[in-house]
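Structure (tokenized):
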């Protein structure tokens, strides 16, 4: 009931305002130079130096004070403030707008506070609202649910969705951050997208850079065209490697990557005669997936990381650290597992094949009732009833499939 009464009152006031404006305009040949100050409706000429307080406030030209009302309008430049439901400036704004809807036809040097903030040209300051739209560049910040800049940004955006059509020299913080150009700074969000080059840090669930990244991507999925930095994620993809390293469960580098298969891995460890493995990533840091056979007719699955460090054109140093899991048919707690560190020397036989061999040190653990699965090797030292320290040897024949 109260809401209906208020609505009727406002509607009647605005209708009365329109009638008064129409009557005054009809009676006054040059109404722009006429001051009308009725309280509920106020209209003033250029350079009127007093505050305007009423239901509707209209400044015909430039205005340098403040307007407070349901509707505030300045047809020229505003150097001051507007406080109301709808605030409209059809020139430059130097000051602030506070209301539900704030609109500036030209540049804003100051701030907008409202549900909807719209700027046709540049923003040199800040906008706070549910929806903030700037049709040109921003030198400052946007804070809101949805922030849109159709130019470049020298500053920051904070919101659920942040969009910049141009470059970003600063940061974007939100659930989804999108830049159509280059980014020199950072993006933090669930989804981060840069259409151009990226210089800095992308951190989120999904990080995508349309061109080169000179910095780091950290997330579940990381994708870029050229990598000159670091990737850390579950899935990493780069089309070309310039000078960088991806690290993840799966790292694919189309040009400049390392993809190889260990056709045979032979161990001196008791119960593990050998296995197969896949190496995927780059030579400085690759992910290794191992499938080994256990003499109890069980399979051991391994996952780890390795590196190929060149000594000369043919010889390389090959350290690897791998976690192995055996007896997977039972619960994880009762399974047997061991973690190994190998330091092998290798030789490139030709374009396709490598051989390597070296010592392996490992720590093995057994589950309850799995005494037969406690690993032992050339040298074994019992650490406790459930674990051993082992030292042995490993040799590999590797087929290199990447160029």
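Design, position by position:
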């Amino acid at each position: 009931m109260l809401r209906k009464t208020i609505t009727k009152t406002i509607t009647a006031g605005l209708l009365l305002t329109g009638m008064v404006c129409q009557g005054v305009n009809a009676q006054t040949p040059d109404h722009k130079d006429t001051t009308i100050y009725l309280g509920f409706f106020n209209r003033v000429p250029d350079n009127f130096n007093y505050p305007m307080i009423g239901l509707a406030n209209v400044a015909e030209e430039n205005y340098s004070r403040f307007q407070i009302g349901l509707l505030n309008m300045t047809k020229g430049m505003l150097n001051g403030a507007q406080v109301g439901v709808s605030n409209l400036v059809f020139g430059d704004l130097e000051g602030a707008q506070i209301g539900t809807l704030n609109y500036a036809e030209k540049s804003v040097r100051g701030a907008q506070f409202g549900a909807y903030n719209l700027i046709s040209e540049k923003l040199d300051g800040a906008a706070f609202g549910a929806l903030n739209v700037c049709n040109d560049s921003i030198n400052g910040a946007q804070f809101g649910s949805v922030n849109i800049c159709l130019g470049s940004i020298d500053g920051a955006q904070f919101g659920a969705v942040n969009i910049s059509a141009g470059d970003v020299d600063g940061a974007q913080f939100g659930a989804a951050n999108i830049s159509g150009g280059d980014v020199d700074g950072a993006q933090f969000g669930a989804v981060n997208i840069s259409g151009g080059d990226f210089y800095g840090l992308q951190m989120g669930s999904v990080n995508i850079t349309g061109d080169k990244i000179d910095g780091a991507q950290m997330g579940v999925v990381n994708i870029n065209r050229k990598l000159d930095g670091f990737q850390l994620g579950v899935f990493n993809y780069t089309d070309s490697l310039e000078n960088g390293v991806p690290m993840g469960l799966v790292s694919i580098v189309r040009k400049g990557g390392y993809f190889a298969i260990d056709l045979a891995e032979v161990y001196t460890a008791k119960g593990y005669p050998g296995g197969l493995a896949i190496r995927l990533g780059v030579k400085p840091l690759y992910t290794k997936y191992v499938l080994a056979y256990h003499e109890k007719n069980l399979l051991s699955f391994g996952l780890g990381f390795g590196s190929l460090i060149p000594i000369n054109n043919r010889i390389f140093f090959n350290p690897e650290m791998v976690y192995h899991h055996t007896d997977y048919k039972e619960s994880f707690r009762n399974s047997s597992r061991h973690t190994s560190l190998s330091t092998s020397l290798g030789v490139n036989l030709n374009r396709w094949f490598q051989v390597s061999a070296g010592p392996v040190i490992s720590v093995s653990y057994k589950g309850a009732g799995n005494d037969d699965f406690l690993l032992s090797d050339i040298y074994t030292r019992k650490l406790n009833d459930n674990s051993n320290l082992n030292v042995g040897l490993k040799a590999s024949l590797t087929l290199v499939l990447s160029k």
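Reviewer-requested clarification: Residues 258-400 form a domain with the Porin fold (CATH 2.40.160.20). Confidence is low (pLDDT under 50) at residues 1-29.
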